Amino acid sequence: MSDTTAPPPVSGRPRREKPEKIRCDACPVLCYIAEGRAGACDRYANVDGILTRVDPLVILDRMASDGGELVSFLDNGRDWGGEIVNTSDRFVTAVGAGTTYPDYKPAPFIVSSQMDGIDMVTVVTEGIFSYCGVKLKIDTDRHLGPETASVRYNGEVVGHVSTAEYGSQMMSLGGVHHLTGGSKKEGRATCEALLHLCNRQAVDLTVDDGVSLVVEAGKPPVIDGEREERMRVGCGSAAIGMFAQQWFRHLDEVVVVDDHITGVLSEHQAGKLLDVPPTGIRIKGHKSTPGRYFRVAEPGQGWGGTDIVDPLSIIDRFDAKTAWPGLRMLMVSTTGDHAAYYELDADLRPVPIPMPDPVAASVARVQENCEPALCSVVFIGGAGGSLRAGVTENPVKLTRSVRETLTHVTSGGAEVYIWPGGGITYMVDVMQMPENSFGYVPTPALVAPIEFTLRLSDYAALGGHMESVRALDDVTGVAQGGLRHLGRASDPARWPVLPHRFGWTAE
Fold this sequence. Notes:
Layout: E1 21-23, E2 32-34, E3 44-47, E4 50-53, E5 57-62, E6 71-74, E7 90-92, E8 109-115, E9 118-129, E10 132-139, E11 150-153, E12 156-161, E13 168-174, H1 176-180, H2 184-198, E14 203-207, E15 212-215, E16 222-223, E17 226-227, H3 236-247, E18 253-257, E19 262-264, H4 269-273, E20 281-283, E21 286-287, E22 292-294, E23 315-318, E24 328-333, E25 339-344, E26 350-352, H5 357-368, E27 375-383, H6 385-389, H7 395-403, E28 408-411, E29 414-415, E30 417-418, E31 424-429, E32 439-441, E33 445-455, H8 456-461, E34 469-470, H9 472-478, E35 483-488
Parallel strand pairs: 5-35, 8-34, 18-24
Antiparallel strand pairs: 1-2, 3-4, 5-7, 6-35, 8-9, 9-33, 10-13, 10-27, 11-12, 11-14, 12-13, 14-15, 15-16, 16-17, 18-19, 19-22, 20-23, 21-22, 24-25, 25-26, 27-31, 28-29, 28-33, 30-31, 32-33
């Protein structure tokens, strides 16, 4: 008979039992998590052998006065007074709620509520978004790079420069092709850049054949190491229209240098209506309509978003038949950051001289009318299978309900814009959401909060998971990471659940 006695431990040390791991099914990665450790996303952990959501569930509390911000003012120990969770003063967000992966499960929280005496529900879930990205609006006149130029984060292409808008440069970052269609390194870099941007953190980007910049939601952009201060007042033509009446009393000619539309006072309709006489100025570039010129120079970091260092380089000449010695001319950029004053000499050549006080005051007025330069980060995502199935067993009914404004969509309690057409593709300003609303899973994909609010009767009609509707005591009992209460102003434009948001209130 063989000896089945276990051999003694080496060196007399007791044998260590291998810690048991549990499998997390909150996303497609399906991590095995050891005791006391968190999964790859840092959102779920193994706590005493139980899969536990570690982030707190965020609840918005309506403040008594307008103007409040999303600032934490209550801890997890807040006592519950027995009220229904989504009263007119409280809203459960999906921040910290958890996901529905693998799709068929009901949303983590389907919360009972009332609105003006009407029974409502809010379906609360975090979505795993492989189809997502951000749109960046960067307030600057400076040329960031050619349209369609690649934008890089840590050397990896994560998006591209988009079409410029009024006073701002635009970028489109992320999307499924960058997240999943390239190398693993590209996907990880894209996911990391999106996560930082959506959580209002600074991100260093570079543009091929362009600039390096630092982008952070709600903060001025930093371009090639220089902090941008102002968003332009308008294009060169618009600036002429706005300030012509202030300029013509002190000046004979004004040229507002702009990469898009350079304005010339004496030729512009605003100048004509003020009886500003012709000056004989000849501007290089493509003349559009009187006093409006395109392509006076190439895009760049100089005057008005051009590559101009010397503004006189865009002037071809002054016509001797019309111009006169002593003619007073101001050249100014669309932000007022660049300005110079000239008078013509006997040979009709512009000579720089110190700027008279009234002219300097007019330049200061241009600067005053420029808004602060900021970076805006707008998250865009497509709500697909796991989101809709977590609301109803027949997902297309949810899409139709959103279209018919029976269901109101929010993200972290913030208002969203729903794109027309098929599906539920939405955009949300990350500055309107609670801080750190976004997470990630290393598939790679972002995790973002989304809430669907509708009448209880409409929820039943679209085949909702009625058996999963809960009240506040159930929510507090299963919010594994605790509760986090945030204050939000009572401004009707910002509070997520109000009658005017639903089409049926007009019936």
